[in-house]
User: Fold this.
Amino acid sequence: MTAEQDNKALAGEYVLGLLEGEAKMTVERRIASDADFAREVEAWRSRLAAFDDTADPRAAGDTLWSRIEAGLSGSPARAPETQSLWSRFWDSLPALRVAALGSSVAVLLLAVGLSFAIRAANQQPVMVAVLVDGNRTGAVVHTFADGRVVLLPLAQIDVPPGRAIEVWTLPSRERGPVSVGLMSRAQTLQLSLKDLPAPKPDQLFELTLEPATGSPTGRPTGPILFKGNTALAL
Amino acid sequence: MTAATPTDSATEAQVAAAIARCAAGEKAALRVIYDIEAQRMVGVARRMLRRQDLAEEAVQDAFMRVWRSARTFDPQKGAARSWLYAILRNCALTILRDESRFSADEDAAEEAAPMSESALARLPETSALRRCLERLDAKRRSVVVLAYVHGLSHGELAGKLGVPLGTVKSWVRRSLISLQECMG
Assistant:
């Protein structure tokens, strides 16, 4: 193998994605400093580009775009939005504050029942998920007929400094877990499912412990605190 | 039969112009690139990562990088789409090589295990890449396809093809040299 062939093969290996660690960094430095070598890399990219056009197009909807757009503005994405939704919810439904403090389902249902007696028919959850960890019940997720989905904690959750509780749901295996809420401590939270299909029976909800600004990857990274599946309310 | 959409020079020009507008800080231009390329990009990433959620994550990372480094794109040095897809592939490989994340997710793979011949068969009959790859014997051809299209590492190639690592490395280099000589 001549030195020239060696160079071309090295550029090709880089474009194939086969270089790792030190070898990859060395090549990247060389691309920046050696114009001839950079041209070899570019030549490989254009030789192999035809493969990229053989991939089937896959769904890339407005949800993915909004995640990208949220990143551009430099805002910490989900956290403030969840907070403001939560605040509005809190203002409009003060009775749920009582509910959040209640430590049993009975107290909770009583509070909800009393405060919404007039609109009781609308306020019954159409679906309930009880989130558990073994024998311990941690929270319930109520889906209401008007589309609101609300998480009500039923247990204290220890959140270490710099961490937060993130709420996830799995709308489909294909889609994977989607973040629907973030909170610094266990509290009643209206979940943000507006970009998702309405929850279906047997849909997974779970709480994980994540960094304070939410999972850095957009998928659960920390330990699962509680989880459970939705069921139709009788 | 091929799933490839011919990339005409108009698309290339649109993407190049949009990258230039991104460099000037125009967010709407990033959306233009998204509308033209995002579905294909998710498809490319999904062949490597085998899951929709990870593929979307790679595309998200790629668009962030496109936005941040749009000023470094130099149309004198290369094509706009090839720049875009190089960024995407880097983002996908970063996720793919993060073993702590990926091995745990292996069970959830949605795509079938990679088959080197399927991507090859989708190349247009007239493609120089296809013609030149077909001149190589099957195993030497497959290392190129599996690495580029499906993101396999040297170690994974050796495992899949049942040959020692040194053999795989030498096949890769010889295949690349033949391919370069054939395609020019």
Observations:
- Chain A is about 40% helix and 25% strand.
- Strands of chain A lie at 125-133, 136-144, 149-153, 163-170, 178-183, 189-190, 204-211, 224-232.
- The first helix of chain A runs from residue 3 to 16.
